Amino acid sequence: MLGCMSLCEELQELEARLLRLGPECPRECMERLLAPDFVEFGASGTVWTRESILAELASTAERVYQMSDVRCAEINAMSALLTYRVTVNGRRSLRSSLWIRSEENWQMLFHQGTVVGSLSPA
């Protein structure tokens, strides 16, 4: 655990690292935080695996994001569900992530994003 953070604070910080990409979470960070059998149902409708996200990482620009309404539910000592709203580069979505505790650290096993609107003018 990161210092004396609560589980929710720790998972929120790990989730934020994944959202920021770039220097905040380079490839080594992504490899550590994504479980080997990770899968994501993206807001775009794309199904991502750990390998496809790592391959895409080199061409992904740093993103501006804002998280809100973060909630955390501890399922058991080894797993937790994190849900939140996020705006990334003006695009709003609902997110949910299933985190599992490995021998070394927390890893994201599953993630889903659902688009809820855009901040661009109508």
What is the molecular shape? globular
Structural class: alpha+beta
> So how many helices?
3
Amino- and carboxy-terminal Cα gap: 44 Å
Mean pLDDT: 86
The number of distinct β-strands equals 6
* Top CATH class: Alpha Beta
Enumerate the strands of the largest sheet in spatial order, edge to edge or round the barrel: 2-1-6-5-4-3
Overall tally of structural domains: 1
- Uncertain stretches of 5 or more adjacent residues: none
By CATH, the topology is Nuclear Transport Factor 2, Chain: A
CATH A-level architecture = Roll
- Rg, Å, rounded: 14 Å
**What is the ordering of alpha helices and beta strands?**
HHEEHEEEE
Domain DUF4440: 12-108
Protein name: DUF4440 domain-containing protein
Pfam family, one: DUF4440
InterPro entries: DUF4440 (IPR027843), NTF2-like_dom_sf (IPR032710)
Strand and helix layout:
Elements: H1 7-20, H2 27-33, E1 34-41, E2 47-49, H3 50-56, E3 65-76, E4 79-88, E5 91-101, E6 106-118
Parallel strand pairs: 1-6
Antiparallel strand pairs: 1-2, 3-4, 4-5, 5-6
Organism: Terriglobus roseus
Domain DUF4440: 12-108
Pfam family, one: DUF4440
